[in-house]
Amino acid sequence: MSSAKARMIARASREIASGMVVNLGIGLPTKVIDHLPADFPVCLHTENGLTGIGPTLPPDQADRNLIDAGGAYVSTVPGSAFFDSATSFAMVRSGRLDLTMLGAFEVSSQGDLANWKIPGKFSPGVGGGIELAQKARRVVVLTTHTDRAGNPKLKDECTLPLTARGCVSRIFTEMAVIDVTPKGYALVEIAEGISLAEVREATGAPLTIPDTTRPVF
Predict the structure, then answer these.
(1) What pLDDT was estimated at residue 175?
(2) Residue 6: which H helix or E strand, with range?
(3) What is the structure's pLDDT at 44?
(4) Which terminus of the chain is more exposed, N or C, with fewer CB under 10 A?
């Protein structure tokens, strides 16, 4: 993993407050757990049936029956609980998640999320993304600012099939932290070594820049 991505994930981990119930989505979000202090009082949830998740483990140290929704080997903590998928999604649908962190292929300036299918490429299905995006009290996204071809992932309108509309509150990329506001994208923080011009060029929609000093992460 690049140092820029690691810095982004570390910054995103600070979005989690003490006492929260948090779902970490497949991909970059699952790495957030490794940036939380071991004794941090948070209840992490994975939709395949576990609350109370400890650090990820290498295969030679792992219980091979314990995986998160992305297939990574995880550990338990005091108070961990196991349950079936029906119970897990009842927790999601009843609004018990304070925060979910999801990956994205595209996000629109209205907070629409597309994170499950690129036409013409294999997809195993939308999974739990729809419920997580619609029902968590707060939804943030961790993603690269552009795709592999250099095209913006932060756009005025999504062109890929939507997961949910108007759900995203904040976006973390390797270049910046950006909020979705009623007026569109607003820059919150900028990554060390990245210029404002670079962020503007990589963002596929207008970006509001605050008059105050921009924090650096």
Answers:
(1) 98
(2) helix 3-13
(3) 97
(4) N
Residues 124-151, mean pLDDT to the nearest whole number:
94
Active site (annotated) includes residue 47: yes
Residues 206-215, mean pLDDT to the nearest whole number: 91
Q: What is the DSSP string of the chain?
A: --HHHHHHHHHHHTTPPTT-EEEE-TTGGGGGGGGS-TT---EEEETTTEEEEE----TTTS-TT-B-TTS-B-EEEEEEEE--HHHHHHHHHTT--SEEEE--SEEETT--EE-S--TTS-----TTHHHHHHHSS-EEEE--SB-TTS-BSEESS--SPPSBSS-EEEEE-SSEEEEEETTEEEEEEE-TT--HHHHHHH-BS-EE--SSPPPB-
Query: Choosing from 47, 106, 131, 174, which is the catalytic residue?
Result: 47
In this structure, are residues 97 and 22 in contact, taking their beta carbons and an 8 Å threshold? yes
Confidence of residue 74 (pLDDT cuts 50, 70, 90): very high
pLDDT averaged over every residue in the chain: 94
